[in-house]
Amino acid sequence: MPSRFYSLARPAVAEWLWSRYEGAWEHRDLPVGQRFLGSVTLSQAASEEVLDIARDNLTRLDTLTWLKLKEHFGSYETDWIRFLTFALSEYAYYDKEEAGYWRGLCQRLGIENSPGTQNALRALIKRGIDELGLVQKPGRHVSTLWLQSGIPQRCLKHFAKLIQSLEYGWWEMAQADPVDLAILLRDTCEQRFHTFGTLMNFLKSSCSEEEDVSPISGTLLQGLARVAHELEIRGQSPEILADATQRATLLHGFALPNAFFLRSWDSLIEILRPRPQTTGVISFRQKSMVLRLDVEDSFEIQLVLPAQHLYRREWGIYTSTFCTIPEAPWEGNLALTGTGADLEIHEDVCRTVSQPAEEWVWHLKSHMGQSLLTWACPGLRDDQWCLMFDANTGERRIPGQLGLSSELILFFPEETECQYSPGIEIIDSWLPCSWFGWQGHLIHRQGSDATITLSRGEFCQMIAWDVIVQASPELQGTRLPGRQQKFIGVPTFWMPPSTQDQDFNIVVEDLTRKMTLTAANETLEIAASSDWSAVDLQRWIAKAGEYSIQVWNDSFRWRTKFAVQETFILTRTMGVFDPQVYDQHHQPRSIPIIFEERDDFELARIAIKNCWPLETIQFQLQGMEEEAVFSETASATGEIHIDMASQYGVLSGAEGYRLRCCWAGHNKTLLTFNFNQEDEFVDSPGLEEEDDASVSIPIPSKTKYWMRSSTHRPTVFLSFIRATLRQRAIEKYFKSSVEQDHVCLEPIDDKFNYQECINSLCTNLRQKLKENIYWGVG
């Protein structure tokens, strides 16, 4: 018993007690829902003192109910709730009773172990979890307490033995998903160490395939793997971790998971020895089926079952290994083992969806038709009038998630009318949809006031496209479309604005070659600025491959993965350049645009569309006797904006001016004032053709044909090309895909004069789409 009585019923005492122990809580400043109450630097003697104080207070109540607890300690006070929740968490860490948590706890606190007592303490725990913002296992109070301190003290030796038995290298475990690692630990313990009952309970509590639970066991293993890997590459012995001061210094410079903590290292230091590298960690997680728009290829709405490796003990009863997913359709075989069976779905299983539904369900069935497993994907309810996808990744978006995207593809039934607020721009007002009777819009958010209004007769529905403030670092560069971050060349890393100077640890890893590229304890010094700060990654990254970058300090941690693709040069041979010019009122204009007044010419603003994305084009500003040349680079959508006011004073006074667009050794007049000369393409020897005749595009060495339409997005344009190739019965002679902002056709045999074939294809598409089609060879 403590030397004196501390009454939690006195608010000032409860506040003082909680603040005394809160100072040792490492996770107190983490976001709500990411805090583990057991991340404390306390000795076991200090924990026993906490339990003694709790015992002394609770034994003064004749019976224990939630109502009596509130009446005694204060309905509107919270420090006593936090303190007692902390005491129950500490008991969970040091608990050595085999008879169960409640029996041992009630005995330690000197209170009756009854259903009423348990209900009162459950209510206390529930309130304490909310007050403290803890990681929790929904609806399971004792399991939540098991999570708070990581590995229970009496399980540390068993946990070390379990990790030692894993057949993966430290690098592979450090890069794996913590959820996958948590499931791996649980399944391995179940198969090889089924007598480790208490550890098994913890492992089951810290991972779930169905519930949103923080995988604390997987996070612990990932952190330990990173520590072991860092020690190996630095040539340091694990024994250095035995000293608390040295350990704290070392861990500060390691790229550890945000929630990583370990209360005792005694049983784990010895196992952190170098291990041989292996293949990636096999995940036995059941991955959810999703609805996705295939923006990279077919532009169809698809159900996608991700590739996955599954293991179930109960599958071991089957004598035949054949199994199928009838809805996909897909067929495979179970791999029988001594204790069960596993199934590997080697690649994503995709099926085009032809009509909406409230839910889609796929079943994995045995050779006898028994259901082994199910996957479900939510569809559209009756009150949902549209379906939205991120235009770049094809990921489904629901209201509340729209701020994650700057461009959306919105599909809706033909009888639904869509209206947009001024903060939304319609890029394409007609997109085909694989659902019968539906159509789509490609829209772009260009302002903070962005609202989508859907109407059906007298009824309407409004969807807010909220802006999510970007406060985290970003990678920027020439990014290829698709779900993964893939860049042409090395992207630039940007840190957000800051009001004070900050130092960050940084780790850049080459995931392809399994190397750490940054030096040990490498740091970034970011000066206070109202602007974003650029960090050049080329000092570490020089080759194509997959990479990860992580930055952190005491109050911040951020990590992302991305890929870098080689840059090649495509030399284009295009027969026609047909710029589309729009005035400052966004109206299309025939060229040349003739101005009657000099001021109108000097203040003109135009937009030139139909350029190649990221293409650099030269312009000539000519007077009667002199001229000036300047360059502009097209945006990712192939647009160039010119404000003639920026060229004011470049030429001396003249009686007439004109602006000419120069492309591949040719030029064309766009604007004139009192300068009457021919407007057709003419040779212009003064310009070097190679300056404008190439653009960086990722291509392999063999010849490909690169095509672009004047208005349609590449994925939409690809669907028209494939339909035309099918109609002409030559689809099988081409491999077609979208790369960057173009459609690529690659011949796969020598049956045709392909240049004539492409010419004919373009003519056919021009007639069908009533628009210009461009192509080049590379």
- Mind describing the biggest β-sheet? 8 strands, mixed
How many strand units? 42
Radius of gyration over all CA atoms, rounded: 33 Å
Overall morphology: globular
Low-confidence stretches: 568-575, 678-702
* Share in β-strands: 25-35%
Q: Mean pLDDT score, rounded?
A: 83
Kindly state the percentage of residues in helix. 10-25%
Detailed description of the structure:
- The protein is an alpha+beta fold and 778 residues long.
- The chain is 24% helix and 29% strand.
- The protein is built from 16 helices and 42 strands.
- Strands 19, 20, 21, 22, 23, 24, 25 and 26 form an eight-stranded mixed sheet that branches.
- α1 packs across α4 (79-94).
- It is globular.
- Residues 568-575 and 678-702 have low confidence and may be disordered.
Task: Give a short overview.
Strands 19, 20, 21, 22, 23, 24, 25 and 26 form an eight-stranded mixed β-sheet that branches. The protein has 16 helices and 42 strands. The relative contact order is 0.05.
Any key phrases for this structure?
six-stranded mixed sheet, eight-stranded mixed sheet, 42 strands, globular, 16 helices, 778 residues, alpha+beta
Write the layout of secondary structure elements.
Blueprint: H1 11-22, H2 44-58, H3 66-73, H4 79-94, H5 101-109, H6 115-132, H7 141-148, H8 156-165, H9 170-175, H10 178-192, H11 197-205, H12 216-234, H13 244-252, E1 290-293, E2 301-305, E3 308-312, E4 322-325, E5 330-333, E6 335-336, E7 341-345, E8 349-352, E9 359-366, E10 371-378, E11 387-390, E12 396-397, E13 407-413, E14 417-420, E15 424-432, E16 438-445, E17 451-456, E18 459-464, E19 474-479, E20 486-495, E21 502-510, E22 515-516, E23 523-526, E24 533-536, E25 545-553, E26 556-565, E27 569-571, E28 580-582, E29 588-589, E30 593-595, H14 598-602, E31 605-609, E32 616-622, E33 627-633, E34 640-643, E35 657-663, E36 666-673, E37 682-683, E38 694-696, E39 705-709, H15 714-727, E40 734-739, E41 742-747, H16 754-769, E42 773-777
Parallel strand pairs: 20-26, 30-36
Antiparallel strand pairs: 1-2, 2-8, 3-7, 4-5, 4-9, 6-7, 9-10, 11-12, 11-13, 13-16, 14-17, 15-16, 17-18, 19-20, 20-24, 21-22, 21-23, 21-25, 25-26, 27-38, 28-29, 28-31, 31-34, 32-33, 32-35, 35-36, 36-37, 39-41, 39-42, 40-41
Helix pairs in contact: 1-4, 2-4, 4-6, 4-7, 10-11, 10-12
